[in-house]
Amino acid sequence: MAFALQNSPIEEQRNIIRFLTAEGEKPAAIHRWMVTVYGEKCVSDKSFRKLSARFRAGRESVDDDQRPGKTNTVIKSDLIDKVDDLVRSDRRVTLRMLALKVDVSCGTVWSIVQVAISEGVCRLGSEAAHRPAKGTAYGTSTATSVSVSERLRFHEADRHR
């Protein structure tokens, strides 16, 4: 009795589809066989049919195609260090200014600041002496023009309550 392969990479399944398609097997038969072997982790019928048609048309690669649009930014330690250094050199720097200087989106800079606050990856907020009162503009504003140091100070105040 066969057992279902639950931890198989998608490339493995694509290789099988490519091989059996090249052997001349019918797509429906290949998919039925793969469903019995891979169970729930098998590629969907729609994806299977697209891949099978592409391989019959001469496609060789089993890797994903490049997709249009902006690529995802991976937050690496050197990017965190750059943001940390910029904030230390100018405590009044805004998220928008940081994003322009390190050439990433404001959302990425905000994620770095959040990681710095929650996990203590860098010490962006450790020198905060002044903490705004609850309900001030620093805590309720989501505008990117509010300085990073002020946001960090507000977050530190919330953390200690």
From TrEMBL:
Gene3D superfamilies: 1.10.10.1450. Residues 14-58 form the Mos1 transposase HTH domain. It holds the Pfam family HTH_48. This is HTH_48 domain-containing protein. InterPro entries: Mos1_HTH, Transposase-MT_Hybrid. It comes from Trichonephila clavipes. It comes from the Eukaryota.
